[in-house]
What we know:
Oligomer: homodimer
Order of helices and strands of chain A: HEHEHEEHEEEHEHHHHH
Amino acid sequence: MIVCFVPYDENICSYMTVKIVLIGAGNVGYHLGRRLKEAGLQVVQIFSRQEAHARRLAKEIQVPFVTDLAQVVTDAELYILAVNDGAMNEVAAQLQVRNGLVVHTSGGTPSAILQPYFPRFGVLYPLQTFSLTRPIDFTPIPICVCANNTADEDFLFKLGSIISQNVYKINDNQRAVLHVAAVFVNNFTNYLFQIGYDILQQENLSFDLLRPLILETAAKIQSHAPAEMQTGPAVRGDAETVERHLAYLEKFSEYQNVYQLLTNHIQKNIIIS
Amino acid sequence: MIVCFVPYDENICSYMTVKIVLIGAGNVGYHLGRRLKEAGLQVVQIFSRQEAHARRLAKEIQVPFVTDLAQVVTDAELYILAVNDGAMNEVAAQLQVRNGLVVHTSGGTPSAILQPYFPRFGVLYPLQTFSLTRPIDFTPIPICVCANNTADEDFLFKLGSIISQNVYKINDNQRAVLHVAAVFVNNFTNYLFQIGYDILQQENLSFDLLRPLILETAAKIQSHAPAEMQTGPAVRGDAETVERHLAYLEKFSEYQNVYQLLTNHIQKNIIIS
């Protein structure tokens, strides 16, 4: 099935025939590759150093793969580097590209990392957390694009619009800020889940007790601002409950520190309207 | 429509005809009242000091309401106190109950708060965050019950099974622990969303950019343990990114403290398997 969000215009055919090479078949590469193919775009080759990864994606989307960078075709029009931040320089240095546009998919890395290697470079950053084991609907995922020239940036924006309903032109500075914010709402949030898990486990209580609450907390935020949704002893100034919780957390001194710090901040910052 | 999760047995009719009085028509009372009625249970009266709240729920589930505690019927078999923790003592002291079982719905309050007032008391705690403006599916919500005698506890367990698929016998100590854990995964998580919101706002970036990430972070946890899902610069030991983020957060010193503390803990505690 071809699902495409760009209204039909005279140029759409040119986007749909762009030859794309996907470098990397890990979490991001896997889901991006599937979506590009599903949207009817032309992925002509997959590269991954890890043959199992390359083979899995290649089989799924029926595209040839290579495991040697020297075998990557040089005449594609778009190269998408879905590789770890740490591997970016090494891969970029070895990649031979005749005239194509080269983008990476990283939130935390400036586009300029590609400048020494390619005349045309940019970023196509899908702002989401990906796992190989979880299917994901790509259409609501924000796609943040930028490039070192306007024509390529417009091209990436249009390409993003083919795979997602939410495309943004976001420069390197803005993307760096987004990445910091994403660490708070994803990585640190997950760590709070870990604290909940750990506290319950030590009392032989199932984490299942918290799962519906976690899902609803995130669901509420889809249509409200966080400040409107803040509840709990800290925001309602319930000092007695806070003291009781801190006393209980004596046996988890690190969690007690987190509780104290976040409670202080909530009390100081949030104004109930 | 009557949806009921208790397999039919000879006693089911006795549960379905129990006369229930609902004290409180705020967030919890509203959704609980709707669910009790939907499941075919007999809510005979609603009390709320706030007439608008009482009227709204009464109209919706077609049950009489009163706004004066002295007018509450004294011969019901179950009284559910869905009132704020702070109002619990005052309401309990004024409530005249001939022989019924009285329960509250609070995670943070021991059942013993009801002991001075009623011979039969307990708790029916739905572990979820409720908003008047959001409809909610009650069936997956964990219902935590306890009572001061086994017969009432069994009764509450059966009653809970009529309105939810997940009922647990949870004593006061366990519920207190659950409440601490819920503060981490709900209240503190929401505060991390607030940090993300605030950082983005100061850069004129839309919070919509983070919403899909927030939802997926919570969705992943429905079928995985948090430790398996931990990602980000802290857990992968990416000191360069951590330093860059901390430098950016210089202008948000409180957020910098949160970033530093949580990063330290993740690095110390999480072992990637």
